[in-house]
Amino acid sequence: MDDKTRINYLVDTLNRYNYEYYILDNPTVDDFEYDRLMQELITLEKKYPDLKRKDSPTERVGSTVISEFVKVVHKIPMLSLGNVFNEDEIVKFDEKIKKEGFNPTYVVELKIDGLAISLTYEKGVLVRGVTRGDGTTGEDITHNVKTINDIPLKLNKDTDIEVRGEIYIKKSELERVNNERKKEGLSLFQNCRNLASGSVRQLDSSVAKKRKLNNFIYHLPNPKDYGIYRHQDALEFMDSLGFKVNKERKICKNVNEVISFINEISKKRSSLSYDIDGMVIKVDNILMQEALGYTAKSPKWATAYKFPPEEVVTKLKDIKFTVGRTGKITPNAILEPVRVAGSTISRATLNNEDFIKDKDIRVGDYVILRKAGDVIPEVVGVKLDKRNENLEKFAMIKNCPICGGPIVRKENESHYFCLNEDCNARNIEKIIHFSSRKAMNIDGLGERIIEDFYNFGYIKNITDIYLLKDRSEELMELEGFGEKSVSNLLEAIEKSKENSLERLLFGLGIRYLGEKSAKIIAKIYPDIELLKKASFDELVNISDIGNVMAKSIVDYFKNDENIETIEKLESFGVNMKYLGKQISKKDAFADKKFVITGTLSFISRDNLKEKITTYGGKTIDSVSKKTDVVIVGDNPGSKYEKAKTLNLEIWNEEKLKEKLIESGEKYE
Fold it and tell me: Is the pLDDT at 610 greater than 80, yes or no?
């Protein structure tokens, strides 16, 4: 056997042993024999480096060091899931799907508490591992992914494929790592998720290798490309390729079976070797998934059930107040540090004055604390049996805790607001929001850095961000900043100028205007100059834009300071136009009113309403002479008959699909 043949034999044999050990949990060779073959392969690869294969198990050694993480755009966005928190909400999720005319079978899986990952293979060989990031753009962590033994470097079939899953760390590994760090006097990791996340984001892959990361694969983004039309079949297909797929799942024919399985898993949650923070409920039928569609953030055909939060008791030491970007004053509990749901908590929101008074929370009380959805710490009540009767009742502050100016509680509001537009806290929060991932996405300009820059006088408002390039030498003199980090920051700032209009609108912090609404507005008013002139009546006529939001938008553009801010941003080269598909007056949906009746087979009613809005139309409930088009599915009601009587334009499913395709949608 020549050396090339021997190298190929060793690679294939060792990869098979890895698969048997890490995926099948059924090793067929002892450690001594495995180590002997691995050492032989290492020796041969050093002697003949040109013969080393990309899927060689020696790639898992963990010796690669990178200078920075490269950004990668996901071909198919990695959306997050919506949440439900109790049985009633699970039932409502099921009812919502049934209202669309479907009777689904569900696949229920464990929700692993780790870090989402996308893996891409070409001809069966791993070429890229990318984090979720903001769902659209993630970071390339391939060098660390290769160190994870249960992620195959080569599949059982030479296929091109992208799969998604969760990188996690076992509870025993968290304990081992923390014991080592304790001996070295280092800070401890709070939970398995933090350790997994911190490990995969190491520039040096040898660190990730030492942490013994694990992986489960749970999603195939494009199953129909492989002739697969059920999620369960997709899981089995990925399993057959050599991926580690969690066996703790169940096909449920109805919502009662879903709830029963969730209760079954919750009883043995603590005995699992890894952390889970809930269960994932998915519609099994892929065509049904497509018909149900998506919101801006998550699929409508899946949801995550979050386990009831763990509750603990701790002492309320003080109540401190913070000021948000809109001037909103929020009371916060300062607590005796306590462990809850895997984290040490010392602060929690107290929401507002009414919340505190309704629960009669007093400084010095022992309070009940939990993490909502295992994420956000919240105070849920007081242990009155432990109260010292001398404790003073809560009284709301009268002045802003930052600038000392007056605060007011507006009519029909539960919060107080600082009236001072120049309040430092408000300005800092505005800048943080503007730079955030979902707004202008300025990488490297996080909360701590913004606070420092504000205090140093480098940034006093959002427009100052684009003047930082004039202070590059000063920035390099700051602690923690070198030439490379300053260069990266300035590059990110320049790149933000190219963002589409919806990001800018969201970043400007117009009250009540959220991420989804900003995108709807930007499509209809693709240039900010058009939006400046928009009237209340025009805005309120847009689906999903109510009276309050419409008034807020109009008021924002009436303010001279806001206009000055926009003009400054434009002068710095910040894009003011929508870069996606714009709505033309010639489009089939633009400026038309639609009524939908009957059941549609290829798209859900909610999804269709969203598409109509996206392309400039409006959906209404009743048929009249003012109706432009009536869309008719199976079993239409009296609306169809009325449409014929009024001689209105009627679209059947075939014509609807044709119009959607003309507008840019893709349907088979």
Answer: no
